[in-house]
Design brief:
Layout (H helix, E strand, L loop, with lengths): L5 E5 L6 H11 L4 E2 L3 E2 L14 E2 L2 H9 L3 E6 L5 E5 H9 L4 E4 L2 H10 L4 E6 L3 H11 L4 H15 L7 E4 L3 H11 L4
Parallel strand pairs: 1-7, 1-8, 2-7, 3-4, 8-9
Antiparallel strand pairs: 3-6, 5-6
Length: about 180
């Protein structure tokens, strides 16, 4: 039997990471989706240890100092977000594949701490399709969409850093491709 895989999944906002991961986990419920930690307060409806691990800035800093984060960042100079190391190691030790759905900088940090992970970039079929998806979500102003598209260009320029690129033309196909890369299909 092969060791369980740690999949580090990166892709631009609007590419469908969450949707593809949900479908992948429906097909393979043994997969653990890593829950990030944050120093921000919970939003209405968010549940601790489900949406995030909500922790104090002091505890977060202690985890960073102790090497207890696989990756972390301070966002907009305010709240900190990161991936706690121990839950990932525990799930892998229990034989579960684990997915980290994180940003490009986080993936670069994880490559330094867990270089044997599988790094996959989820790409849109085209920049035009990505823009269409962001607009159709209807959740952001045009200025925010423009910022996300600028970030997406930077992210897509990094695709060569990844072990594989999966293009999300179809959710079912993308989920199957990820499962195949993880050795689950």
């Amino acid at each position: 039997m092969t060791s369980p895989v740690l999949l580090v999944l990166v892709g631009p906002s609007g590419v469908g990471k969450g949707t593809v991961v949900r479908r992948l986990r429906e097909k393979h419920p043994q997969i653990v989706l890593s829950v990030s930690a944050t120093t921000r307060a919970p939003r209405v409806g968010e549940v601790d240890a489900v949406h995030y691990h909500f922790i104090s800035p002091q505890r977060f800093d202690a985890l960073v100092t102790e090497g207890g984060m696989l990756e972390w960042a301070q966002v907009f100079g305010l709240d900190k977000y990161g991936t706690p190391r121990q839950p990932v190691l525990d799930a892998l030790a229990e034989g579960h594949p684990v997915i980290l759905e994180i940003d490009l900088e986080g993936a670069r940090q994880v490559r330094g701490t867990m270089p044997d992970a599988l790094f996959v970039f989820l790409a849109p079929p085209s920049p035009e399709e990505l823009e269409r998806r962001l607009v159709e979500r209807g959740t952001e102003a045009p200025e925010a969409i423009a910022r996300r598209l600028a970030t997406a260009r930077t992210e897509m320029a990094s695709m060569g850093e990844f072990d594989a690129v999966v293009t999300n033309v179809d959710v079912e196909q993308a989920a199957s491709e990820l499962a195949r890369l993880m050795g689950l299909e």
